[in-house]
Amino acid sequence: MSNLSATNQIINYIKENILSGNFKINSKLPSERKIAEQFNISRIPVRKAIEKLCDDGILMSVPYSSPIVKGFKKVDLFNDNEIYKNHNIQEFYVESLRARQFIESEATKLAVLNASDEEIERIRVAYLKSIAELDKVAKGLIKECSDADLKFHKEIIAASHNPLFYKYYEIIPKTIFSNQYFGFKYRTSLNDMIEHHDKIMEAFEKRDPILAYNAMYNHLEDVIQLFQSK
Fold first, then answer.
1. Does residue 79 lie in a domain region?
2. CA distances from 6 to 13, 67, 69 (A)
3. Which of 12, 102, 104, 174 has the most CB atoms at less than 10 Å from its CB?
4. CATH number of the domain that 210 lies in?
5. Do 29 and 69 touch, CB atoms closer than 8 A?
6. φ and ψ at 88, to 5 degrees?
7. Pair 94, 172 in one domain
8. What is the dihedral angle through the alpha carbons of 123, 129, 135, 136, rounded to the nearest 10 degrees?
9. CA 51 to chain centre
10. In this structure, are 106 and 214 located in the same domain?
11. Which ranges of the chain have pLDDT less than 70?
12. 74 in helix, strand or coil?
């Protein structure tokens, strides 16, 4: 995050707090002054970030007052002529998770077959980190756990030795980012997630491609069911 411009840091900060529920929908955003003081910067990048988020429909400008938080109402990943442009965000995420389910289940199977010992060790380290970070979700620290969980998935994708599978993470980063946030936000128990990660890791230890495919498939199916129940 430190490599980003001040404006982009503020944009990410506001988005993350909306996704985590710290900034409630239809509530006022903290003042420009308060945000600027928190980051020890001038109010100019804060104002630019707010203007951008208002243009995107995530915030609503209010004359002589802080903007109102509107949240993520529609998908902004596509051109106006794309069929998904006006889809409800929940509906789109279910569809994007189905795509992840297909790709990552197959990638996990390939990774079990193709991963070197060094790659399996990197997967194991990422797995242990993701489990260790899960207790932070209960404290509202979703960002830390989201990063650790994403690292676990990316190491598996890389170990598949299929460049097309790895490339898809770069093609739809906003979708994956939000998948992680909402998956943690709506989860009522972390035990199921731990069990799924355990099962995925077990498949690597046993070098069992069928177990690997099913473990990842069921893991993402659980997230899909979270979305569909809301």
1. no
2. 10, 19, 20
3. 104
4. 1.20.120.530
5. yes
6. -60, 140
7. yes
8. -120
9. 24
10. yes
11. 1-4, 19-21, 72-93, 135-146, 169, 171-191, 226-230
12. strand
Predicted local distance difference test score (pLDDT) of residue 77: 44
- Separation of alpha carbons 93 and 168, rounded Å: 15
- The pLDDT of residue 140: 57
How many domains, in total, are found in the chain? 2
**Cα–Cα distance for residue pair 130/186, rounded to 1 Å:** 18
Residue that is written with structure tokens 């100019």 in the block? 44
Rounded to an integer, what distance in angstroms lies between the CA atom of residue 220 and that of residue 102? 9
Distances (CA, A) of 81 to 76, 168, 171: 12, 22, 19
Q: Residues 111, 201: one domain?
A: yes
As a whole-number percent, the residues of the chain with pLDDT over 90 amount to: 35
76 inside domain: no
Take residue 181 and report the two structure tokens written for it: 């946030």
Non-local (6+) Cβ contacts of 143 within 8 A are: 16, 20
Beta bridge partners, 60, equal 68
Nearest to 14 by CA among 160, 25, 3, 133: 25
Q: Which residues of 13-28 are buried (b: 16+ CB within 10 A; e: fewer)?
A: bbbbbbbbeebeeeee
Q: Round to whole Å and give the CA distance between 92 and 130.
A: 26
Gap between the Cα atoms of 129 and 72, Å rounded: 29
